[in-house]
């Protein structure tokens, strides 16, 4: 039955409503622009100036970026951030895949509660997490106390004051935080795999290991991409964990780019260099996440 509206008039009416989706998007775009794009643009502007944050500024062009790649302490901080990627991303992914595969193959009562407990570190403020682990790592803390109780007193040490073990100690906190997130993501992905695929693999003579690599792993590549993206970003932008536990010490053994941005801008008063470090860190994060997503899409 005809609606009685001429095609030309209907097209005009539809074209007249073309602005409606943009009206719905406008508030989110405004918030995104004000709180993300504008600060990034201002940081990029500051990175071309020598400025202490208060007085007059002097245009220096790309000098601040040259200093980023010539400053040994800043390069060391970026190196520490890449080390933390192993603890925040690679290690949680390996543990998460293993635990999720075991849980997916077995019947676990109260799995929903178990998922909630695993995810709890994600909803606890990182400052609270850092304070708690600082107490655990203290010379008279839980970790050293447990080692003494087990007769392993020779392994005790000031974990956050040892040049060799401080960075891994901080990194393991990130492992604890990120593992639950990865397990929940992997369980969600594995839960969508049809059981018929596992049955077909068993009929072909596949054991548990071959099932994992032939069926499970390819099916959760999307979740792996998401997990890697989230955890690598968390590793590269780590600030509060380092600030609360070590403040970059002992010496400079746990400095990271975000902490250096804070220290250079607010303690030293070199805002231009701090802004340049922030822009470089942003570019590094964008490049890494782009590569990860491209590889994930091709897979």
Automatic annotation (TrEMBL):
Residue ranges the record marks as coiled coil: none
GO terms classed as biological process: transmembrane transport
Membrane topology note: Multi-pass membrane protein
Gene3D superfamilies assigned: MetI-like
Transmembrane segments: 21-41, 77-101, 113-133, 165-188, 271-292
A cellular component term, taken from the record's GO annotations: plasma membrane
Domain ABC transmembrane type-1 residues, every copy: 78-292
Matching PANTHER family: ABC TRANSPORTER PERMEASE PROTEIN, DIACETYLCHITOBIOSE UPTAKE SYSTEM PERMEASE PROTEIN NGCF
Protein name: Sugar ABC transporter permease
Species of provenance: Labedella endophytica
Lineage: Bacteria, Bacillati, Actinomycetota, Actinomycetes, Micrococcales
């Amino acid at each position: 039955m005809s609606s009685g509206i001429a095609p030309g008039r209907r097209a005009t009416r539809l074209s007249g409503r073309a602005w409606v989706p943009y009206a719905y998007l406008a508030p989110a775009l405004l918030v995104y622009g004000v709180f993300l794009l504008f600060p990034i643009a201002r940081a990029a502007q500051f990175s071309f100036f020598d400025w202490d944050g208060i007085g007059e500024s002097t245009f220096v062009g790309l000098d601040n970026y040259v200093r980023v790649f010539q400053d040994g302490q800043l390069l060391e901080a970026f190196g520490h951030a890449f080390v933390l990627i192993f603890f925040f991303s690679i290690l949680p992914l390996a543990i998460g895949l293993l635990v999720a595969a075991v849980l997916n193959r077995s019947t676990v009562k109260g799995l929903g509660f178990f998922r909630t407990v695993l995810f709890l570190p994600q909803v606890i403020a990182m400052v609270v997490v850092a304070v708690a682990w600082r107490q655990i790592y203290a010379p008279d803390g839980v970790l050293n106390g447990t080692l003494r109780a087990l007769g392993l007193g020779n392994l005790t040490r000031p974990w956050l004051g040892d040049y060799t073990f401080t960075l891994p100690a901080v990194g393991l906190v990130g492992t604890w935080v990120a593992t639950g997130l990865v397990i929940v993501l992997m369980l969600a992905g594995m839960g969508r795999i049809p059981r018929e695929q596992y049955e077909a693999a068993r009929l072909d003579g596949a054991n548990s290991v071959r099932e994992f690599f032939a069926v499970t792993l390819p099916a959760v590549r999307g979740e792996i991409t998401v997990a890697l993206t989230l955890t690598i970003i968390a590793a590269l932008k780590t600030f509060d964990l380092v600030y609360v536990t070590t403040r970059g010490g002992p010496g400079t053994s746990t400095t990271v780019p975000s902490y250096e941005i804070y220290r250079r801008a607010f303690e030293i008063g070199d805002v231009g260099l701090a802004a340049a470090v922030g822009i470089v860190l942003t570019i590094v994060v964008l490049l890494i996440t782009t590569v990860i997503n491209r590889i994930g899409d091709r897979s």
